[in-house]
Amino acid sequence: MVRTQIYLTERQRDELAAIAKTAGKKQSELIREAVDRLIDQSGRSRREAVLREAAGIWKDRKDLPDFKATRAEWDRN
Asked: Distance between CA atoms of 20 and 14, rounded to whole angstroms?
């Protein structure tokens, strides 16, 4: 692990301390869990954005083979 210092508001520190006490965990554990959730959510959002951006990029291409005809030929074999 890498040591990192962060600044919290008093309210954030107090609420985090209360949550840690209730959960029986260290504040650092809760912060790592929160960071992991943020990374997971951000990763999903980035993947979804890339997929949305890529959707339909070949729809107007005229230089591609006729995939329906090619597939129909494969199905006959």
From this structure: 10
CB 8 within 8 A of CB 16: yes
pLDDT tens per residue, range 38-68: 998 888 788 888 888 888 888 888 888 888 8
Smallest Cα–Cα separation from 27: which of 37, 13, 41?
A: 13
Could you state, in order of their start, the residue ranges of all structural domains in the chain?
8-55
Q: What is the pTM of this model?
A: 0.58
Q: Quote the CA–CA distance of 9 and 28 in Å, as a whole number.
A: 16
Q: Is 24 left (phi over 0), alpha (psi -120 to 50) or beta?
A: left
